[in-house]
Amino acid sequence: MTESEPLLSVQGLKKHYPGGGLRSDPSGAVRAVDGISFDIARGETLGLVGESGCGKSTAAKSIVRLEEPTDGEVLFHGGSRGGRSRNDDGTHPNDVTRFHRTEMKTFRREVGMIFQDPASSFDPRMSVGDSIAEPLSVHGLDDGRRRRAVVEDLLGRVGLAAADYGRYPHEFSGGQKQRLALARALVLNPELIVADEPVSALDMSVQADILGLLDRVQTEFGLSLLFISHDMSVVKEICDRVAVMYLGEIVEVGPTESVFETPKHPYTEALVSAIPTPDPRTTNRGIELTGSVPDPVDPPDGCRFHTRCHAVVQPPDLDVSRASWRRLLEFRLAIEAGEIDVEAIEERARTGVEGAEQVEGADGLDGADEGGSTAAERLRAAFDLPGTVADPAVEEDLAAAIGAVLDGEDARAVERLRSTVRTPCEQRHPESVDHGGGHESACIRHDPEVRAAREWPAER
């Protein structure tokens, strides 16, 4: 491997699953991983972080081909593969996705895997020593005494005892099982370890022990590490660089210190703001993400995060306050998602007037309650919408959309709002922007042309 070559280079990796039900066409696929790219250098720890369900575990399994990738390249330059160039047809001889059976066996010797739940990855009928030694047997070490010696040595290196060889998984605590999982990942002397949420099921004190062990073992064995987690505080502690993943895509990547101190993507800002602080005097409550996570079968157009983004871009010609703009967009998105329950809003309005008789017609959607509010006003109040929007064109569309919702015509409401309540974030997919020092993010706020045309909320 040359000086400039990363140990692992993931390029445009995709993993799509066929959609359920009657839809068998490609458009109904679940896009769990949808074109991610990153590099891992020799001796480096890269953290792949994001909310549960963002696709990070699927990405890990696709990299080591426990799941077959749909598209993309996984170039592994370990072993004697360094310095190879592409074939005449454009493919690469180091592309794991194209390895045949023999090459895959070699690759699996060079890459270890730690799973999220170590208890389920050990056979309860085998001693832990035999489970750890099994890869040695698969890869040709037939001498049982040598296998046992290797395993006993590893048990000591991960903080257990050689005498633990003959014990069974149920005899160990969660933290001890994760030490056993690390020993098994190390048994073939790999160059890269893929650790999928290795401490998420452990108590805080045990987490610290395992993270310290990972750090020590990485230095001792000269390993590279792909560390997958949903916990930003853990990633900050152990990783050299961080890649932030949302709904199948990487939205930001860079050195850990840079990403945590000056996050560039709004999703990263929200994740960083949610890290607990030990200072009881702090009043920072973090950034609240509104809305629900979109369906990976039908992700939003443009930036996939715009449906939940606190910094979503307002059209330059829309004459409303930023707070009103965000509520208008949330209202439109709620209609599109079918999340507005008019009957529930009306029921809350009725039960909220304690001891008062309802006026005639209050049971109908167009009626007024005892306080004189109409169904349209109650719907505005439910979404904290202004009584009247300052921009006449927007107010006209909003009033028409509210009327359509009350009539049960959501499609007509969406069509009306889309003409004015539409963010540039959904009109095109953001390109990755280099902020220097290996720090990149994909957000249209950082597009020079778009940025010059708008005023922006303050960044962290």
From TrEMBL:
<dbReference type="GO" id="GO:0055085">
    <property type="term" value="P:transmembrane transport"/>
</dbReference>
<dbReference type="InterPro" id="IPR003593">
    <property type="entry name" value="AAA+_ATPase"/>
</dbReference>
<dbReference type="GO" id="GO:0005524">
    <property type="term" value="F:ATP binding"/>
</dbReference>
<dbReference type="GO" id="GO:0015833">
    <property type="term" value="P:peptide transport"/>
</dbReference>
<feature type="domain" description="ABC transporter">
    <location>
        <begin position="8"/>
        <end position="272"/>
    </location>
</feature>
<feature type="region of interest" description="Disordered">
    <location>
        <begin position="1"/>
        <end position="28"/>
    </location>
</feature>
<keyword id="KW-0813">Transport</keyword>
<feature type="region of interest" description="Disordered">
    <location>
        <begin position="353"/>
        <end position="373"/>
    </location>
</feature>
<dbReference type="Pfam" id="PF08352">
    <property type="entry name" value="oligo_HPY"/>
</dbReference>
<protein>
    <submittedName>
        <fullName>ABC-type transport system ATP-binding protein (Probable substrate dipeptide/oligopeptide)</fullName>
    </submittedName>
</protein>
<dbReference type="GO" id="GO:0016887">
    <property type="term" value="F:ATP hydrolysis activity"/>
</dbReference>
<dbReference type="InterPro" id="IPR050319">
    <property type="entry name" value="ABC_transp_ATP-bind"/>
</dbReference>
<dbReference type="InterPro" id="IPR003439">
    <property type="entry name" value="ABC_transporter-like_ATP-bd"/>
</dbReference>
<dbReference type="InterPro" id="IPR013563">
    <property type="entry name" value="Oligopep_ABC_C"/>
</dbReference>
<keyword id="KW-0547">Nucleotide-binding</keyword>
<dbReference type="Pfam" id="PF00005">
    <property type="entry name" value="ABC_tran"/>
</dbReference>
<dbReference type="InterPro" id="IPR017871">
    <property type="entry name" value="ABC_transporter-like_CS"/>
</dbReference>
<feature type="compositionally biased region" description="Basic and acidic residues">
    <location>
        <begin position="85"/>
        <end position="96"/>
    </location>
</feature>
<dbReference type="InterPro" id="IPR027417">
    <property type="entry name" value="P-loop_NTPase"/>
</dbReference>
<comment type="similarity">
    <text>Belongs to the ABC transporter superfamily.</text>
</comment>
<feature type="region of interest" description="Disordered">
    <location>
        <begin position="426"/>
        <end position="460"/>
    </location>
</feature>
<feature type="region of interest" description="Disordered">
    <location>
        <begin position="76"/>
        <end position="96"/>
    </location>
</feature>
<keyword id="KW-0067">ATP-binding</keyword>
